[in-house]
Design brief:
The complex is a heterodimer of chains A (257) and B (14).
Chain A: E1 2-6, H1 10-19, E2 25-30, E3 34-40, E4 46-53, E5 59-62, E6 66-71, H2 72-79, E7 87-92, E8 98-104, E9 111-117, E10 126-127, E11 135-140, H3 141-152, E12 157-163, E13 166-172, E14 177-182, E15 196-199, E16 203-208, H4 209-215, E17 224-229, E18 235-241, E19 245-251, E20 254-256
Helix pairs in contact in A: 1-2, 3-4
Chain B: E1 2-4, E2 12-13
Classes of the chains: A mainly beta (257), B mainly beta (14).
Chain lengths: 257, 14
């Protein structure tokens, strides 16, 4: 028996909107730790790791570890039917081939339930070791989204370079080239507007903008994004989910042949 | 020419 009650249901709506274009089908894993997911895109270039910690739910009952295969597009369709202020409860019985999403309006005058068929998904989990990154950039998530969108109108790939001067995003395409440099800036009114760069080693890595643009679908989840880079390692783009957990995207770099 | 790497080059299956 599984019953997870999330008062801020909009968080789950936003999570689905942020990952449904990158991944088609995924297993949601439920344990005493929380509600989590790890899934790769079909070409195994990018990976999404989601964690919603059990403490973040108003009610969290998960009698035994459960893995539920879901089509993310279908799940997003159902969650779209929940109001932004609705409380969402996820329910499943042991051995059942369905999951139920229950939506309660804040005033409890409308209660809906949507039952979705589960699916069997063969998915391999990758072991992702905790790594010390050469450079960690924290910046406003809307700024990062803007940069990825703007650069993708010029080129297909972005080179992200971190030096003492700041973080530089560069691209080249048929019509020309573009460079955007963001300097560390901590003298802002709101801490979330800051750009903070922690650098141990200079880093320069190249990534497909197609994927970084998928990641920025998570922008509504958090006002800041953290980009962790090490030479010759996948980049980690993390959006924290207030007091609950995170959505992390991993993307393998491109190399010159 | 650029080559897109895949994640299994960096992370092993669990």
């Amino acid at each position: 028996m599984l019953e997870l009650r999330l008062v801020q249901g909009s968080l789950l709506k936003k999570v689905l909107e942020s990952i449904k274009e990158l991944v088609n089908d995924a297993n949601f894993d439920c344990s005493s730790t929380g509600f989590s997911l790890q899934a790769m895109d079909s070409s195994h270039v990018a990976l999404v790791a989601l964690l919603l910690r059990s403490e973040g739910f108003e009610h969290y009952r998960c009698d035994r570890n459960l893995s539920m295969g879901m089509n993310l597009n279908n799940m997003a369709k159902m969650l779209k039917c929940a109001g932004n202020d609705d409380i969402i409860t996820i329910k499943a019985d042991d051995g059942s081939d369905t999951v139920t999403f229950m939506f309660e309006s804040p005033t409890q005058d409308k209660i809906s339930d949507f039952e979705m068929k589960l699916m069997d998904i063969d998915s391999e989990h990758l072991g992702i070791p905790e790594a010390e990154y050469d450079a960690i950039v924290r910046m406003p998530s809307a700024e990062f989204a803007r940069i990825c969108k703007d650069l993708s109108s010029i080129g297909d790939t972005v080179v992200i370079s971190v030096t003492k001067e700041g973080v530089k995003f560069s691209t080249k395409g048929d019509i020309g080239a573009a460079n955007i440099v963001c300097r560390q800036n901590t003298t802002v009114d709101k801490p979330d507007d800051a750009t903070v760069i922690e650098m141990k080693e200079p880093v320069s890595l190249q990534f497909a903008l197609r994927y970084t643009n998928f990641f920025t679908k998570a922008t509504p989840l958090s006002s800041t994004v953290t980009i962790s880079l090490s030479n010759e390692l996948p980049v980690v783009v993390e959006y924290k989910i207030a007091e609950m957990g995170y959505v992390r995207f991993y993307l393998a770099p491109k190399i010159e042949e | 020419k650029q080559k897109q790497q895949v994640l299994s080059r960096f992370f092993a299956p669990k």
